[in-house]
Amino acid sequence: MVKKAVKQKEGSTAPLPKLALFLSKYSNASSKAGYKNAIESFLRCIYGMPKSDIKSGKIPKPDYNALFELYLVSKRDNDADFIRFSEHLIETRPALSAKQSMTAIRYAMTYHGVNVSKGTSQDIRRETMKGSAATVDRVLNQKIINAALQHCSIQGKALFLCLASSGARLNEMLTVSINDVDFTSHPVKMTFRGENTKTGKQRYTFISDEAASSVQEWLKVRNQYIEMSNARSKKLIEIGRASVKTDTDPRLFPFSDAAVTQWWNDALTASGEMTKDDVTNRNQLRIHGFRKFFLSQLSLVISKEIGEFLAGHSAYLSGAYRRYDDETVASEYLKAQHMVSITGSKQVKELENELKQKMQEQSLKTEKHADTLMQVITENMNLKQMLQKQQEQLSDLQQRIELGEGKQFVITLPDKLPEATLRKFLEAMKEIGGEGTIHHR
């Protein structure tokens, strides 16, 4: 956890409340939210203020800063309070979440001088928290996600497609700036700044073509959505139970995690995919399942290391970054993009591109084969002509040899040869170009 010095606003002399001061020491949004939720949950439990009553308006929203300072100065049985809170966590949260909240509240209270006995701590850790129930999750797949998307708003669809194809955590996606999404790159690159990541380190990932297209459609109506949201929440804003949204908010998705969770639960219910654990009564298809979906799907096509790197798992960040440059990671992601696309086994656009590429390759092959065939035919015709010519020349030469054409010859005729026969013979010899002398015996 990264801590930094807290600066007072210029001209301000009043010190920050202790709770606000404690939370301000954490620059990581996820860590700050974890401590804030744990402390507020603890105070509601101890002072008997159910969250459901606050949400419904039965009781006013408490001043957690004041309650926190009241608890610090009150003489209470801290051991009993912590046991009570642990039992509350068991009833309302899954095992891991309960343990995380207990660890957070113990650290926050110890930091402010409130301690719990060692025996009570051991009892909570080894008995109470150990026996807490955990929700048995179902595995998210393309079919379930696609069914839920049919019942989502334009912003919900864009957000869930981004989660499915990026491996990002929900809090990371809800803090990413519009300017940190590079629509000019392919695949579209999304950068998470260090102050908004779990590890405190800046990193990047990619989103699929279908997610990018959905995000661009959402951006077209984003300002209109903000205006309508403020109008719907006017009364809640007036009583301080909701905040005003502005079009100057740099976030791509200016929503709360609670609102997104509700969208997802509603979509699952409408699609008939909502199931709850028999013991904990919690949704078995949690939003965190999108990360598991991303990692498992990518690992079927490319190196597991790249998927873990893009999802921001700290163990893979430095190692994968040294092995692969950005261009290589992008190229590998494109190979597996269809595995984290939801609207089909492969995106329509990708199938079109593949078909066009195959047709182009086939066309080139056909042209090449046609050229080769024409060349063979031409060569064959030339060879036939040459052969025919050679045959004609050979036949002519043979005739010439048989007739003695072109040679000097001497023919001896028998005595008393008729004059007419002699003339005919000489005329025939002249026709073939022969020259000779006739002698009589």
Task: List the keywords.
three-stranded antiparallel beta sheet; two-stranded parallel ribbon; hpI Integrase, Chain A; 5% strand; 441 residues; 19 helices; 4 domains
Strand residue content: 5-15%
Give the topology string: H per helix, E per strand: HHHHHHHHHHEEEHHHHHHHHEHE
Low-confidence stretches: 1-10
Task: Using the alpha-carbon principal axes, give the shape.
Answer: elongated
Question: Domains counted in the coordinates: how many?
Answer: 4
CATH architecture of the largest domain: Orthogonal Bundle
Determine the oligomeric state from the structure: single chain
The chain-level structural class is mainly alpha
Distance between the termini: 135 Å
Question: How many distinct beta strands?
Answer: 5
